[in-house]
Amino acid sequence: MQKLNQLIIFLVYIGFSFTTSAQTTILNETLLTQDSFNTFTPVSVTGDQGWNFSAIYGAVCSGYTAGQSYENEDWFISPVLNLSQTNNPQLTFSHTRGSAAVMNAGVAEGWYSVFATANYTGNPATTTWIALSGLNQNISTAWQYVSSGSLTIPDAAKSASSRIAFRYKSSATQSATWEIKNVQVTGEQSNNPGPTSTFKITNWNTEWLGCTQYGPDDEALQISNVVAAMRSMNSDLYCIQEVTNTTTNPTIATLVSQLGSDVWAGSIVPTNTGECTQRQGIIYKKDKVQLVSSSQLSSGSGSYNYNWSGGRFPALYNLNLITANGTPVPVSIVNIHAKAEDDNASSYTRRQGASEALKIILDGTNYNAKNVIVIGDFNDYLTGTTSAACQCTDSPYKNFVDDVTNYNGITKNITDVDTRFGTHPIIENIIISNELTDNYVSNSAAQEVIVSRTISRYYTTTSNHLPVSATFQFSALNIPENHIANLVMYPNPVKDILNINFTTLTDTKASEIYDVTGRQIATPALNNNTINVSGLPAGIYILKIGEQTGRFIKQ
């Protein structure tokens, strides 16, 4: 896979090229209903007290209980906010403190602070926060709500996965109550931003989903919890593992039905998995993702079959990510569930053998120029290994991790927040091909900690794995209409020779071909106003000659 420069070019009819801005609301939560309160995530760092819901007062935090103050540090963290294309984002809210005797305790020390971040790690202590300045702390009367004032969210906190957070503190000798409601984030959204299309992709082992014999005991509750979690995470594509799907128990169809089949769709290979046979499926938003084909990356080789847990082959989903102007971006998802067990040396060897065989396939001509995401339950780390029995220190996926020219293990440095079994990296991983490196939103890969905190008894009712998400962006460069009209090509679609009809004089020294993700893939010679495109794979391409641009389809 050759590293290619990123230049996303979409053909947009604009007439005149100028940009205006429009005010838009990114977040609007009153916090006066339980559903509104639940869009935020309370995190207690110190002390037994924490953020609580009130239908009258909104989000409430106090370190005072049973006639005594206690030392506390508690965070109240917003859902993901896409601020990547927002100018001058502003946060406003109403707040008050009490009682009168202590309402100003700790104000000078910053006990009531507001922050923003471009990337929440799932842990306030490891997240890079930026304090928002200008908060109106002038509350002259206890329990009297005042406006926070407009707090500017700085550029350093803007991303496709930004968050804002409220931090409360108290001491063992003093504590006030802080109440917050009517939280809004607004900004100036460009009417002609490019546009930028953002896609959130989530990886999740759903633990024997659809199987009544293993996993959580209440199958209906598990399905309901998975649906609730998917709604709260609000991803565009879910890659799920450990799924049973049969005619009598159509798990994928059930998920889609409960999510809403007008918006969602799903797929799994094989379609009939057999009872309590673990397979890998996808659930996706139909307006953002288009399924082109699905299959298993299987092989007749006995060792290949054995290494993939006796035939639990990678599930290949060829998709189009549909951008804001309707242009499809082709992506190949390789959803894997590797051999389990860390106390058996042969299991490590099988994971390693499966990884080596998979990389040979992906390095081949069928995939080495495609946008590829290897995602799933790797049952091992990308750095180091879970296996003590093998008496080794290298990851079985070292072959991918070491090939930094062609692959990027974007989850390799994530530490699992679930410390029930000690501190260690995650085993639910995502590896992307180099073609997607510039589209990956830096540091956006993170565990979805919120689901374990908002779903009752998550690890016993839903899954013993936490979802992991990553965000991708595809930008666009608007091309004025006359530049499109000046470059006429035929035949279109084309098989071999593309004829170019220039309607105006142009510099014909430089001709460039880009794919729909914006990668320059060829600089063909222009010969008597023709270009030979026979060597291109079938697909949609953009030809640029001088300042003129046009789109063609290669059959």
Notable features of this structure?
13% helix, mainly beta, 9 helices, seven-stranded antiparallel sheet, disordered N terminus
Give a brief rundown of this model:
The chain is 13% helix and 36% strand. The chain contains 9 helices and 33 strands.
Notes on the structure:
- This protein is mainly beta and 555 residues long.
- Strands 1, 3, 4, 8, 11, 12 and 14 form a 7-stranded antiparallel β-sheet that branches. Strands 17-18-16-15-26-25 form a 6-stranded mixed β-sheet, covered by helices on one side.
- Strand 5 and strand 6 form a beta hairpin.
- Helix 2 crosses helix 3 (251-259).
- The longest helix has 19 residues, at 345-363.
- The model is unreliable at 1-21, 190-195 and 477-485 (pLDDT under 50).
Please write out the topology.
Blueprint: E1 21-29, H1 34-38, E2 41-46, E3 52-54, E4 58-62, E5 64-65, E6 68-69, E7 72-77, E8 86-98, E9 112-117, E10 130-131, E11 146-147, E12 151-152, E13 163-170, E14 177-190, E15 197-209, H2 219-233, E16 237-243, H3 251-259, E17 264-269, E18 279-285, E19 289-296, H4 302-307, E20 315-322, E21 328-337, H5 345-363, E22 372-377, H6 398-402, E23 407-409, E24 428-433, E25 446-447, H7 449-454, H8 458-461, E26 468-474, H9 481-485, E27 487-490, E28 497-502, E29 511-515, E30 520-522, E31 530-532, E32 539-545, E33 548-554
Parallel strand pairs: 15-16, 21-22
Antiparallel strand pairs: 1-14, 2-7, 3-4, 4-14, 5-6, 7-13, 8-11, 8-12, 8-14, 9-10, 9-13, 15-26, 16-18, 17-18, 19-20, 20-21, 22-24, 23-24, 25-26, 27-28, 28-31, 29-30, 29-32, 32-33
